[in-house]
Design goal:
- By secondary structure, the protein is of the alpha+beta class.
- The chain has one domain: Roll (Thiol Ester Dehydrase, Chain A).
- It is built from three helices and seven strands.
- The strands form two sheets. It has a five-stranded antiparallel beta sheet with strand order 1-4-5-6-3.
- Strand 4 and strand 5 form a beta hairpin.
- The chain is globular, with a radius of gyration of 16 Å.
- It starts with 9 loop residues before the first strand and ends in a 10-residue tail after the last helix.
Length: about 160
């Protein structure tokens, strides 16, 4: 793989807010799945050149998660800034697999993986709610971003 086609990493910094935490002051585990989705949504305009919202509203295509998992290494706490690192690990006919790392001030906090499918959201269409083939323009831009080998849950 040449340097220009090397897979890239999308990074999203997030402040851990009071509402993200349980009574012990650490991030409540389901919040990480929202953090992963926030990284995916911000990846669209940052690296693909179009907004996630334009696919949902204008093109009537959604990207629901059909599989997600996480492993937790250390707690993240209220008031910290964490950084989500996202890579694309696989591109199927109608699916995209992502790997994530969550970093805090003291290093790796969590890892995760998500598989999303491209879904028809057009309620007037016979195929509403079903997986559809990824648009060629989207596939080309994701390939340009680059795919990383899937190293388990490591991103």
């Amino acid at each position: 793989m040449t340097e220009s086609s090397a897979p890239r990493v999308h990074k999203l910094a997030l402040a851990v807010r009071f509402g993200d935490c349980d009574p012990a002051g650490i991030v409540y585990f389901p919040r990480f799945f929202d953090f992963f989705h926030q990284a995916m949504e911000t990846w669209f305009p940052a690296h693909l050149g179009f907004g996630y919202d334009s696919f949902v509203r204008d093109r009537k295509l959604g990207f629901p998660a059909v599989h997600t998992e996480a492993d937790f290494k250390r707690p993240s706490r209220f008031g910290e800034t964490i950084e989500i690192h996202q890579r694309v690990t696989r591109l199927g006919r109608s699916s995209i697999a992502f790997a994530y790392e969550v970093h805090g001030p003291d290093g790796l906090r969590a890892t995760g993986r998500t598989v999303c499918v491209v879904m028809n959201l057009d309620e007037r269409s016979e195929g509403h709610g079903t997986a559809v083939e990824m648009p060629a323009e989207l596939r080309a831009r994701i390939e340009q971003f680059g795919l990383s080998p899937d190293a388990g849950a490591q991103a």
